[in-house]
């Protein structure tokens, strides 16, 4: 996953600033669903009736939520950038028009992620690059 700062839609009429200001994204590397998000927010002190909308994020790893009132953002800010729910720790970020998450698929495992960082640095500021591999403990594949 690559996160970039892209100022292309700043100032655009397409952005509902009031909604964006009271919205967050929850992220978990192996995936999150809307039920998990509501439980997590409830444990943080947000009531389900305070939620205006829940939307699937840019991947199965994130879910976005818009609150009915801006005061909910104060509750979320007291939690910090991470929140625990059961055995999972979710990352919390405020939504921002300048921050875009990109996923690059089908690269071979030997591909250097620093090269991606260099390529995308030409169009925006790269915030972070994460590698997401399935690690096998024991291979049961046998070839003849």
Topology summary:
Elements: E1 2-5, H1 17-21, E2 23-27, H2 34-44, E3 51-56, E4 62-67, H3 71-79, E5 82-85, E6 88-94, E7 99-102, H4 113-120, E8 125-129
Number of helices: 4
As a percent range, the share of helical residues equals 10-25%
Percentage beta strand: 25-35%
Major sheet summary line:
5 strands, antiparallel
CATH architectural designation of one domain: 2-Layer Sandwich
The topology string of helices and strands comes to EHEHEEHEEEHE
The CATH class designation of one domain is Alpha Beta
**CATH topology description of one domain:** Alpha-Beta Plaits
The CATH superfamily name of one domain is: RRM (RNA recognition motif) domain
> What's the mean pLDDT score?
77
Trace the largest sheet across and list its strands.
3-4-2-6-5
Question: Per the principal axes of the C-alpha atoms, what is the gross shape?
Answer: globular
Tell me the span between the first and last alpha carbons: 36 Å
Q: How many E-type strands?
A: 8
Give a description of the structure.
- This protein has four helices and eight strands; from the N terminus they run βαβαββαβββαβ.
- The chain is an alpha+beta fold.
- It has a domain at 12-96: Alpha-Beta Plaits, CATH 3.30.70.
- Strands 3-4-2-6-5 form a five-stranded antiparallel sheet. A three-stranded antiparallel sheet has the order 7-1-8, with helices on one face.
- The protein starts with a strand and ends in a 15-residue tail after the last strand.
């Amino acid at each position: 996953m690559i996160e970039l700062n892209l100022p292309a839609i700043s100032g655009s009429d397409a952005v509902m600033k009031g909604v964006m200001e009271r919205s967050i994204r929850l992220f978990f590397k192996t995936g999150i669903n809307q039920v998990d998000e509501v439980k997590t927010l409830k444990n943080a002190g947000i009531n389900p009736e305070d939620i205006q909308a829940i939307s699937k994020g840019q991947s199965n790893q994130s879910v976005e939520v818009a609150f009915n009132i801006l005061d909910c953002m104060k509750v979320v800010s007291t939690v910090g950038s991470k929140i625990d729910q059961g055995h999972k720790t979710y990352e919390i970020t405020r939504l921002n028009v300048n921050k875009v998450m990109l996923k690059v698929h089908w690269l071979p495992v030997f591909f250097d992620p620093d090269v991606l960082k260099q390529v995308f640095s030409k169009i925006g500021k790269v915030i972070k690059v994460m590698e997401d591999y399935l690690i096998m403990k024991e291979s049961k594949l046998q070839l003849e």
